[in-house]
Task: inverse folding
């Protein structure tokens, strides 16, 4: 395990070095689907937070991913996750996801995909909610998630479309995109996405 004091300061100035040192650990976080492993999730968050200030997008979106995954757990290490803790992690995922997209200059499939998943989680669980003081108004909530016009569903689809454009082999991103088209009753596009997801899985 790398010591925080020994490695973090130098890595702040050399984000690419961080990627190389963390590569074996980060490999699992490249998996397309959710990682249902609470022990790994805890370690991922603890470890990646050491490098959060590097602003390296490939680290940021993985930390955002780990945070949104944590927000979906009900029990971790035998302890029930409180509503406040879930809110903390989903807010952190949202903020990290936005920063990852900014730093990646729109060129990271993982950043787009997991930001979209974060938005889906926010809309499903907290839209609107007194738990999230910055999102406790429906109009403000949607405008925060979709700054251009407040259309959060369109925002989600746009990020997923970009994700599959950058990584067309991501069957899970195709599947989620299909569910988003199905939600707006565009069955033709939904079917194409589901078919694409199925074809990729068969090929694998």
Result:
């Amino acid at each position: 395990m790398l010591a925080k004091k020994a490695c973090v300061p130098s890595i702040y100035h050399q984000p690419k070095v961080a990627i190389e040192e963390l590569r074996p650990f980060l490999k699992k976080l490249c998996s397309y689907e959710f990682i249902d492993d609470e022990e790994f999730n805890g370690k991922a968050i603890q470890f990646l937070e050491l490098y959060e200030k590097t602003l390296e997008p490939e680290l940021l979106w993985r930390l955002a991913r780990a945070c949104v995954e944590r927000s979906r757990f009900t029990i971790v290490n035998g302890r029930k996750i409180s509503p406040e803790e879930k809110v903390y992690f989903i807010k952190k995922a949202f903020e990290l996801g936005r920063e990852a997209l900014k730093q990646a200059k729109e060129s990271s499939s993982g950043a787009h995909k997991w930001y979209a998943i974060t938005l889906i989680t926010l809309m499903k669980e907290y839209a609107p909610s007194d738990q999230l003081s910055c999102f406790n108004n429906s109009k403000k909530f949607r405008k925060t998630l979709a700054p251009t016009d407040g259309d959060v569903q369109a925002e989600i689809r746009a990020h997923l479309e970009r994700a599959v454009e950058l990584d067309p082999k991501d069957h899970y991103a195709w599947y989620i995109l299909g569910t988003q088209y199905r939600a707006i009753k565009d069955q033709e596009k939904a079917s194409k996405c589901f078919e694409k997801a199925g074809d990729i899985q068969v090929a694998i």
